[in-house]
């Protein structure tokens, strides 16, 4: 019999029975259990929208293998559900009820139970149920767990009262955050990670009678109620029921102000009494308890007044609400005082534990409702990639962060949190935000003013959601395109990276920090200090990574010139925070060998803070100290003493704070070092204005994803396009032409935005709001036909556009050799071959790094490096159709083969497919002339250099570059490529005369 029919018949039977028989009256017997799954074959293995059991996982080998197995020891019937699993990421299975059927009502029952064949693994297994929404994949998830600490069959009973709202992941966002139980869509189990195992399960059913004390709950509208001294706090007490039915028995709430750090009668007027919600009270009904505070003349830290609630007839609140009398009269609270004095005053009042808390940063998903913010005096929270509120809206972000800031108000000195997020190409964790091209595309624009504008848009959208701190920009100098983070770099030349650091001003405003209080600016982070872009292939020891988090082996001269130079510029620009790299630094000749950057006091304390004069604070990378040698105490001691001021310890924040206090108490971390770190952190919090305005200023929220912001992203996407080849002037297209569009990345928003978009790794498909390249071409008025795999007939078209490239990845997951290469997929190659054989064709490569295309270059008429252009595919269409000219230049060298890697400007042996700085233009006519023209340009460029006329000098070098490109065509030899690339480096360093001389050398070789 199908389970759906069983529930329907049970519900019908329940409706026909007298009320006393179904347990709505006190003392009545429990209703009979209602089957959900008997696993006799009544529920198929299927997926939405059909009813069925289906598996899922983080990657291809994570989903478990399931089957229905006949077992003589089956607790019910003949068959049980069995499975095997070996999960490295996450995995499990779900039973979804058919989306085309009405949802099921479980509200009459106490809970859900099932039989589990225990293997005594001692591991927890998550069990979640799906409540409300349109179907099982668009419902709220409520979760709990049980522990497999037994052997053989055992019936697991889980009361619905044990389920909590899942905060780390929700498929579509919160609906009402109430476990209604009247619209249920199924359940799911998440199996243990890192364990090769088997399981068996049988007879999932609903059991028991819904007891009001389990289905009714008393809540307060907040956990913390700050109030100015002399004011009155109003605590709203509400009663709510599962299923939203009126309560059928009275609920009483006795309240009493007791305990805390405030003194009854001196700091506040004590209150006590009782609230009664009579039987029949509607769910959601509220009463207000008022707690008056008293004014005195002394300056004081914040004081707490817990309001103890004793509940009869319902579930009590999970926490005792606290009224907090705000700190007042203390010098650090005086906004008119200099920041330095405010910091000194506050620091002098803090305990060691409070200071250690300020140096601790936790992941928001780890602190649940935020109670630990006050319990551990946490200084900071962050959202890792994909760690978002539900729903993922600007309003929900602001509400979530305000809720965490409210928790900080319950601490002695009410030090606000500083909340951070990886907004590395726009506010990329927020659905609907403006997503910019990744840094490699910004580097291709060679437009510092535009880089600053992209930073300003990002800052405005981030701050409008209540976030004052951005873990960007990445100032890595990418020296090997096999690195999975190479797209986070502006380029392979430190001079190019330095030129793009105008983005720091876009994010922070003035170098002095005076703009940080504005509602459209954020604290920036220069990362990753130092050398993360120079790691050697095969040196990583992190999992299956090949380059990321590996070893950078350099001479001191290379370190200074290549990797440290961008950080000098960032410090000069006033960047507020710096993040060390996961990677190790091996300086030739220093005798130390490879040392993890989080342990390099010589670089963090010595070079960054000492020689460069960095006065912001240093934030670790995600769990980076765990990679240091020794025990945990050693990790903490070594990193803090090396100069790391705040530790990103997402889920081990309690351990870190405890260990730091112990190390400081033992004298292994000095009080002076602790005070330096906390002073740096507090300084930035004061500069950001968080003490005066800790909560979100959402005044700019309406501009998130606005037309004006998207116009900046569109311009950046257009300027980032690098035209590598353009035989017979195939580009720009004409609107009168019939265009055949193909390729995997023509109509995929997720692919064109890349990693770090909504989730850490990013994903393919329509993941956010934006315009694909195909849609941009259509919107431009083009006569376009689309066939993703080029399977549609190709006859009758004037030109083809094939958009190919990579799918999203981030960090070491994207390293070449870790399941990745620089080749196009077989499908993309087939699309290129078919279209380019049938008509004139332009190939666009949407990727985070160069792709090997040399074997097909002869058959391709036009080739464009599109990088990862972000959400505004219309910007790509703008250059394809000539609305804007192609002006982009290669920010990295484009290799002929993977064997050439690493290959970079300045190498002694340099023979690429396309040199660094290459980029054809469709901007008007190419300058005419030859060697005599170059000689004249050289003289003029040298004069501009002497006169410090940068605009004129750059224009003269550009003319010379275009002359060389025109003469060379596609005949790029090593003799041409090396001086050509060197010229672009010289241009970026202001040596215009020398740049033209190098271009003249390239011209002679063409």
Automatic annotation (TrEMBL):
<dbReference type="InterPro" id="IPR051915">
    <property type="entry name" value="Cellulose_Degrad_GH3"/>
</dbReference>
<dbReference type="GO" id="GO:0008810">
    <property type="term" value="F:cellulase activity"/>
</dbReference>
<dbReference type="InterPro" id="IPR008979">
    <property type="entry name" value="Galactose-bd-like_sf"/>
</dbReference>
<keyword id="KW-0106">Calcium</keyword>
<protein>
    <recommendedName>
        <fullName>beta-glucosidase</fullName>
        <ecNumber>3.2.1.21</ecNumber>
    </recommendedName>
</protein>
<dbReference type="InterPro" id="IPR005087">
    <property type="entry name" value="CBM11"/>
</dbReference>
<dbReference type="InterPro" id="IPR003644">
    <property type="entry name" value="Calx_beta"/>
</dbReference>
<dbReference type="InterPro" id="IPR017853">
    <property type="entry name" value="GH"/>
</dbReference>
<keyword id="KW-0677">Repeat</keyword>
<dbReference type="InterPro" id="IPR036881">
    <property type="entry name" value="Glyco_hydro_3_C_sf"/>
</dbReference>
<dbReference type="GO" id="GO:0007154">
    <property type="term" value="P:cell communication"/>
</dbReference>
<keyword id="KW-0326">Glycosidase</keyword>
<dbReference type="InterPro" id="IPR002772">
    <property type="entry name" value="Glyco_hydro_3_C"/>
</dbReference>
<keyword id="KW-0732">Signal</keyword>
<dbReference type="InterPro" id="IPR001764">
    <property type="entry name" value="Glyco_hydro_3_N"/>
</dbReference>
<dbReference type="GO" id="GO:0016020">
    <property type="term" value="C:membrane"/>
</dbReference>
<dbReference type="GO" id="GO:0008422">
    <property type="term" value="F:beta-glucosidase activity"/>
</dbReference>
<dbReference type="InterPro" id="IPR038081">
    <property type="entry name" value="CalX-like_sf"/>
</dbReference>
<dbReference type="Pfam" id="PF03425">
    <property type="entry name" value="CBM_11"/>
</dbReference>
<dbReference type="InterPro" id="IPR019800">
    <property type="entry name" value="Glyco_hydro_3_AS"/>
</dbReference>
<dbReference type="GO" id="GO:0030245">
    <property type="term" value="P:cellulose catabolic process"/>
</dbReference>
<dbReference type="Pfam" id="PF03160">
    <property type="entry name" value="Calx-beta"/>
</dbReference>
<feature type="signal peptide">
    <location>
        <begin position="1"/>
        <end position="21"/>
    </location>
</feature>
<dbReference type="Pfam" id="PF00933">
    <property type="entry name" value="Glyco_hydro_3"/>
</dbReference>
<feature type="domain" description="Calx-beta">
    <location>
        <begin position="205"/>
        <end position="310"/>
    </location>
</feature>
<comment type="similarity">
    <text>Belongs to the glycosyl hydrolase 3 family.</text>
</comment>
<keyword id="KW-0378">Hydrolase</keyword>
<dbReference type="Pfam" id="PF01915">
    <property type="entry name" value="Glyco_hydro_3_C"/>
</dbReference>
<dbReference type="InterPro" id="IPR036962">
    <property type="entry name" value="Glyco_hydro_3_N_sf"/>
</dbReference>
């Amino acid at each position: 019999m199908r389970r759906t029919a069983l529930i329907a018949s049970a519900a019908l039977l329940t409706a026909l029975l007298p009320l006393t028989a179904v347990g709505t009256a006190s003392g009545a017997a429990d209703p009979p259990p209602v089957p959900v799954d008997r696993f006799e074959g009544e529920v198929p293995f299927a997926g939405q929208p059909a009813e069925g059991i289906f598996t899922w996982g983080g990657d291809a080998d994570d989903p478990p293998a399931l089957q229905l197995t006949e077992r003589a020891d089956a607790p019910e019937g003949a068959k049980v559900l069995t499975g095997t699993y070996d999960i490295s990421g996450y995995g499990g299975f779900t039973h979804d009820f058919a989306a085309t059927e009405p949802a099921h009502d479980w509200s009459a029952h106490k809970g859900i139970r099932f039989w589990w064949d225990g293997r005594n693994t001692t591991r927890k297994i998550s069990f979640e149920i799906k409540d409300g929404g349109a179907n099982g994949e668009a419902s709220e998830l409520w979760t709990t767990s049980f522990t497999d600490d037994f052997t053989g069959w055992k019936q697991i009973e889980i009361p619905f009262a044990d389920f909590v709202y899942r905060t780390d992941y929700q498929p579509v966002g919160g609906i009402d955050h109430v476990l209604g139980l009247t619209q249920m869509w199924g359940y799911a189990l998440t199996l243990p990670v890192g364990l090769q195992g088997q399981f068996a399960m049988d007879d999932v059913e609903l059991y028991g009678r819904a007891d009001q004390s389990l289905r009714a709950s008393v809540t307060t509208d907040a956990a913390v109620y700050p109030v100015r001294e002399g004011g009155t706090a109003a605590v709203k007490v509400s009663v709510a029921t599962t299923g939203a039915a009126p309560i059928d028995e009275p609920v009483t709430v006795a309240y009493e102000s007791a305990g805390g750090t405030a003194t009854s009668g001196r700091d506040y007027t004590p209150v006590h009494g009782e609230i009664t919600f009579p039987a029949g009270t509607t769910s959601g009904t509220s009463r207000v308890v008022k707690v008056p505070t008293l004014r005195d003349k002394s300056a004081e830290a914040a004081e707490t007044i817990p309001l103890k609630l004793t509940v009869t007839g319902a579930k009590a609140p999970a926490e005792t609400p606290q009224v907090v009398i705000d700190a007042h009269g203390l010098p650090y609270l005086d906004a008119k005082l200099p920041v330095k004095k405010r910091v000194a005053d506050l620091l002098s009042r803090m305990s060691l534990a409070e200071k250690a808390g300020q140096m601790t940063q936790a992941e928001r998903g780890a602190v649940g409702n935020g109670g630990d913010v006050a319990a551990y005096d946490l200084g900071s929270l962050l959202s890792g990639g994909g760690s978002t509120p539900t729903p993922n809206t600007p309003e929900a972000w602001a509400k979530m962060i305000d809720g965490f800031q409210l928790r900080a108000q319950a601490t002695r000195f009410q030090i606000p949190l500083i909340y951070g997020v990886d907004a590395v190409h726009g506010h990329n964790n927020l659905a609907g935000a403006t997503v910019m091209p990744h840094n490699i595309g910004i580097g291709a624009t060679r437009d510092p003013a535009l880089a600053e504008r992209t930073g300003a848009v990002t800052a405005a959208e981030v701050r409008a959601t209540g976030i004052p701190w951005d873990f960007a920009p990445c100032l890595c100098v990418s020296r090997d395109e096999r690195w999975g983070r190479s797209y986070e770099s502006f380029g392979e030349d430190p001079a190019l990276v330095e030129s793009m650091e105008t983005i720091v001003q876009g994010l922070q405003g003035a170098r002095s920090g005076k703009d940080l209080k504005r509602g459209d600016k954020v604290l920036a982070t220069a990362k990753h200090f130092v050398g993360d872009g120079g790691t050697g292939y095969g040196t990583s020891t992190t999992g299956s990574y090949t380059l990321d988090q590996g070893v950078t082996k350099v001479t001191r001269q290379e370190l200074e010139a290549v990797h440290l130079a961008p950080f000098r510029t960032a410090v000069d620009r006033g960047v507020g925070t710096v993040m060390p790299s996961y990677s190790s630094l091996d300086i030739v000749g220093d005798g130390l060998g490879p040392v993890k950057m989080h342990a390099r006091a010589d670089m963090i304390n010595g070079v960054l803070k000492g020689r460069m004069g960095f006065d912001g604070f240093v934030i670790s990378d995600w769990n980076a100290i765990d990679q240091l040698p020794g025990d945990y105490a050693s990790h903490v001691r070594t990193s803090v003493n090396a100069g790391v001021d705040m530790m990103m310890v997402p889920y081990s924040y309690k351990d870190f704070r405890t260990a730091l206090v112990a190390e400081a108490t033992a004298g292994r971390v000095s009080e002076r070092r602790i005070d330096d770190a906390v002073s740096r952190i507090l300084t930035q919090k004061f500069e950001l204005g968080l003490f005066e305005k800790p909560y979100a200023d959402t005044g700019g929220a309406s501009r998130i994803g606005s037309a004006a912001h998207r116009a900046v992203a569109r311009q950046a996407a257009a300027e980032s396009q690098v035209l590598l080849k353009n035989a017979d002037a195939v580009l720009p297209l004409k609107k009168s032409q019939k265009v055949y569009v193909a390729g995997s990345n023509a109509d995929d928003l997720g692919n064109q935005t890349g990693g770090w978009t909504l989730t850490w790794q990013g994903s393919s498909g329509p993941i956010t709001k934006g315009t694909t390249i195909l849609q941009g071409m259509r919107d431009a008025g083009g006569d376009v036909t689309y066939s993703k795999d080029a399977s549609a007939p190709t006859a009758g078209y004037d030109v083809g556009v094939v958009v190919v490239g990579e799918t999203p990845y981030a960090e070491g997951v994207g390293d070449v050799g870790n399941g990745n290469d620089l080749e196009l997929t077989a499908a993309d190659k087939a699309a290129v071959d078919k279209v380019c054989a049938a008509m004139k064709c332009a190939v666009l490569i949407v990727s985070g790094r160069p792709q090997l295309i040399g074997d097909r270059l002869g058959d391709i008429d036009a080739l464009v490096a599109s990088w990862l252009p972000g959400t505004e595919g219309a910007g790509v269409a703008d250059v394809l159709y000539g609305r804007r000219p192609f002006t982009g230049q290669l920010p990295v060298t484009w290799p002929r083969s993977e064997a050439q890697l690493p290959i970079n400007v300045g190498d002694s042996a340099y023979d690429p497919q396309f040199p660094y700085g290459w980029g054809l233009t469709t901007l008007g006519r190419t300058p005419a002339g030859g060697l005599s023209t170059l000689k004249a340009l050289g003289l003029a460029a040298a004069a501009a250099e002497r006169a410090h006329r940068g605009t004129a000098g750059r224009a003269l070098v550009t003319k010379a570059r275009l002359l060389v490109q025109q003469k060379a065509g596609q005949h790029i030899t090593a003799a041409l490529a090396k001086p050509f690339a060197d010229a672009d480096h010289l241009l970026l360093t202001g040596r215009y005369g020398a740049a033209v001389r190098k271009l003249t050398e390239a011209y002679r070789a063409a």
